[in-house]
Design a protein that fits this description.
Elements lengths: L12 E5 L32 H13 L4 E5 L9 H9 L6 E6 L4 H11 L3 E5 L5 H8 L5 H13 L6 E6 L8 H11 L2 E6 L17 H11 L2 E3 L10 E5 L5 E5 L12 E4 L4 E3 L8 E2 L1 H5 L4 H14 L4 H4 L2 H4 L6 H4 L2
Parallel strand pairs: 1-2, 1-10, 2-3, 3-4, 4-5, 5-6, 6-9
Antiparallel strand pairs: 7-8, 8-9, 10-11, 11-12
Helix pairs in contact: 1-2, 1-9, 2-3, 3-5
Bound molecules: S-adenosylmethionine (SAM) and iron/sulfur cluster (2 copies).
């Protein structure tokens, strides 16, 4: 069944958060003052089991989902993640199954993930400078270990590796060029993400956003760039390639150039709530259906109804007023 929302957008892409926990405390995502030792994370019985996730994923795939990205929190802190990957990859050989990770424990798991059927990974890294990176992850985690994780993933066949860098003014702008040079050399695709007003714990201000335009200008001045065509409709990253043929980069301009018009993405939180927008205030409980004896058909219809009613376009409407509204935390639904 081909679902369409009220703005005629199909449902193609599902992000599944497998845990709300993380071993980092990135200041823009899980600041320590909020996510400290007394923070109440979800209990084990509150999060979906692998069987429940797989059952939902199968129903979503029947609705037209072609891409599933596992995320979190940090997805690799969830025990036995390769088992879930193999269960999901068994749904359909055509499913584009990927993972976003902070890379901290990727080196150990890369081969098992590949063997389980994972297609690619995106690894987040905000600087090559240990001092800046440690100030951002706030748990004293060194850069080299993340790069070791990326390299292990590339060696395991999980490439082309994409590297996600969130840029926050006054914090890591100085890392933009060194990151571009380094990953161009390595052949990994670096993607710059505008700092977003997700959740309400990171104290976001528009002044902290370094725009995609600024980033492109800065890189182009040293390493000339030209625009490249999108790989598919609804791709969030705008692609640019180096004029000398030495690779490409991407910019995700969710703040300064909203792309709601083509947004075909749904998000499933670790406790089984469906969010139809990254900036939703509330999710729709699917766990209650799973655990309350609903049939696959009941769940399928519930999803169809939710998507059919969807009218979200937060980024296109962003204003002083919307920024102040309550929203779900990024670590809850995984970006
Ligand atoms: N822990 C994994 C990681 O860091 O890759 C997966 C979950 S994390 C929430 C997914 C992505 O969201 C990361 O690339 C992270 O940098 C990005 N992110 C988190 N908070 C953000 C914010 N306020 N603005 C823009 N991107 C953000
Ligand atoms: Fe953890 Fe990823 Fe959020 Fe950083 S961005 S705190 S690694 S979930
Ligand atoms: Fe999609 Fe919501 Fe982001 Fe717009 S603001 S692109 S609707 S997730």
């Amino acid at each position: 069944m081909n679902l369409r929302d009220t703005l005629n957008r199909p449902l193609r892409d599902l992000r599944i958060s497998v845990t709300d926990r993380c071993n980092f405390r990135c200041t823009y995502c899980m600041p320590k003052e909020i996510f400290g030792s007394d923070y109440q994370f979800l209990r084990r019985d509150q999060i979906l089991t692998f069987e429940e996730i797989t059952r939902l994923a199968r129903i979503f795939v029947a609705h037209g989902i072609r891409k599933i990205r596992l995320t979190g929190g940090e997805p690799l802190v969830r025990h036995d993640l390769p088992v879930l990957v193999s269960m999901l990859s068994a749904i359909s050989p055509d499913l584009d199954l990927t993972l976003t990770t902070n890379g901290s424990i990727l080196a150990k798991q890369a081969r098992a993930l590949k063997e389980a059927g994972l297609k690619r990974v995106s690894v987040s890294l905000d600087s090559l400078d240990d001092e800046i990176f440690k100030a951002m992850n706030d748990v004293d985690f060194p850069v080299w270990k993340v790069i070791e994780g990326m390299d292990a993933a590339a060696a395991a066949g999980l490439g082309p590796i994409k590297v996600n860098m969130v840029v926050k003014r006054g914090l890591n702008e100085s890392s933009i060029l060194p990151m571009a040079r380094f990953f161009r050399e390595k052949g990994y695709i670096l993607r710059f993400i505008e700092y977003m007003d997700v959740g309400h714990t990171n104290g976001w201000r528009m002044d902290d956003v370094v725009s995609a335009k600024e980033i492109i200008k800065m890189i182009d001045a040293e390493l000339p760039l030209e625009p490249a065509d999108p790989n598919y409709r609804g791709e969030v990253a705008e692609r640019w390639r180096y004029k000398d043929g030495s690779g490409e980069i991407g910019v995700i301009a969710s703040v300064t150039q909203a792309f709601c018009r083509d947004c075909n993405r749904a998000r499933l939180s670790a406790e089984g709530a469906l969010y139809t927008c990254l900036f939703s205030v509330k999710g729709h409980d699917l766990r209650g259906l799973l655990r309350g004896g609903a049939t696959d058909e009941d769940i399928s219809q519930a999803i169809a109804r939710l998507w059919g009613r969807r009218s979200d376009r937060y980024s296109e409407l962003r204003s002083e007023k919307t920024v102040a509204l309550p929203k779900v935390e990024m670590s809850h639904i995984g970006g």
